[in-house]
Amino acid sequence: MTEATFDTPLQLPLDVGTLAAINDHLRPLEPQQILQWALTHLPGLHQTTAFGLTGLVAIDMLSKISPISQPPLIFIDTLHHFPETYELVAEVEKRYGVKVNVFKPEGCETVQDFEKKWGEKFWEQNEDTYDFAVKVEPAQRAYQEFDVRAVITGRRASQGGDRASLQPLEVDATGLLKLNPLFAWKFAQVEAYVKANDVPRNKLLDQGYKSVGDWHSTVKSTEGDAGERAGRWAGKEEKTECGLHKDYFAMKAKAKLEALKAAEAQAENGAA
């Protein structure tokens, strides 16, 4: 059987047949082989990461595959991360000698800036629009600024929810390519790699947390909790994604309406 060949780099946009052929080619490969293929074939390749274990494993793998020229790292600073997460960002920069490109909510440098624009505890008022404001919009701004055409993610099928049917390579509604090099790995494989390669990890994982996001929506895992992401969005069983992997255009339209409402509310309070 002849080995599949693809344009180097790929010509975008990909048609359905080409995407299917690529996934057939990548599916049996090891994560390192998928990453090696991506470095050759994916144009405008970057890595978006919240510094979860899978993303950290990908960073470590890339440091060994391409030590001189790794895909640039993009970190979305929601302004609501735990202090331990910010400490991990600095540790990764030092350990791997890479720059982490940080993007924050539009027009906001501090929590106070964000509250002035959107109101206090905005995640309690409208969670989807909060996700758009702190994650989706900054990510899109990063993609435009760096001309990102493809991103490496830390998603895995075993994380469940919307990720259960994950493929090695996907295309979202905006045309962005999303590479999931560890899509087939179980958590035990990720954990074993982290230990064997002394990969930096969030200190909160040693304090009872299974998965770490914003401080206000992340709690320690309790006995009987199922799933690798237990503790994220506690009490909201229907929620499995933060917004980065949802329909961008639908979230953008909703966020515009909420921004108008917030502006009107602020104007009324100012006039009172």
| Strand order, largest beta sheet | 3-2-1-4-6-5
The parts where pLDDT drops under 50 for at least 5 residues are 229-233
Count all strands and give the number: 6
Strand percent estimate: 5-15%
| Bulk shape | globular
Supply the number of helical segments. 9
Distance between the termini: 75 Å
Class based on secondary structure composition and strand pairing? alpha/beta
Please state the average pLDDT score: 87
Largest sheet: 6 strands, mixed
Rounded to an integer in angstroms, the radius of gyration calculated over CA atoms is 19 Å
Summarize the helix and strand pattern as letters. Answer: HHEHEHEHHHEEEHH
Please provide a written account of the structure.
- This protein has 272 residues and is an alpha/beta fold.
- It contains nine helices and six strands.
- Strands 3-2-1-4-6-5 form a six-stranded mixed β-sheet.
- A hairpin with a 5-residue loop joins strand 5 (169-171) and strand 6.
- Helix 2 packs across helix 3 and helix 7 (127-145) packs across helix 9.
- The chain is globular, with a radius of gyration of 19 Å.
- 35% of the residues are buried.
- Residues 229-233 have low confidence and may be disordered.
